[in-house]
Design brief:
82 residues; mainly alpha; 0% strand; elongated
Length: 82
């Protein structure tokens, strides 16, 4: 699922950390460590890059949920893009 990079049914800081780790690996030309499914889950803005923008979206959602937000991840993304 989108944002749930480690597929544990929770979109949280762990997922954001994984995205940042992947971004660092790609930025230093070490190559991708993600499976096809993980890449899909991590590329939040669908721009073909896994980067800090994606991690920021995941962390934003985690903060939203942690403070009582009730939207699912897709709903949250829609609400911040309007």
């Amino acid at each position: 699922p989108m944002g749930d990079v480690n597929n544990d049914s929770i979109v949280d800081a762990v997922d954001a950390s994984l995205v940042l780790s992947e971004y660092a690996s790609l930025s230093t030309e070490q190559g991708s460590t993600f499976s096809t499914e993980e890449k899909y889950s991590a590329n939040i803005n669908m721009d073909e890059f896994i980067d800090a923008v994606d991690a920021t979206a995941i962390l934003g959602y985690y903060a939203y949920i942690s403070t009582g937000g009730e939207l699912d991840f897709a709903g949250y993304l829609s609400s911040i893009q309007q």
